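2024-03-11 09:14:02 DEBUG pipeline.ingest accepted 1 chain
2024-03-11 09:14:02 DEBUG pipeline.ingest length=69
2024-03-11 09:14:03 DEBUG pipeline.predict start
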Amino acid sequence: MTPKPMRIVSHDSDKIVLRGYPVQAMFPFGWIDFNGEDYDATIKLKNGEIENCILHMQCRNVYIEYLKG
């Protein structure tokens, strides 16, 4: 998966929420508009350490959860 530019929407001691934003991206055939607003990420914390991360792909109605191994 390619990197997605995101901004912090909210954060507290146990959760950080990020949301993508529209940008122009360079592709092999030139610059294109990329709507990053379809992507969100939630990072859940426990005792100051990452417990899990969830990538929300709103455009596909898909959530991918990454667990600590």
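2024-03-11 09:14:41 DEBUG pipeline.report Strands lie at 6-11, 15-20, 22-27, 30-35, 39-46, 49-57, 62-67.
2024-03-11 09:14:41 DEBUG pipeline.predict end
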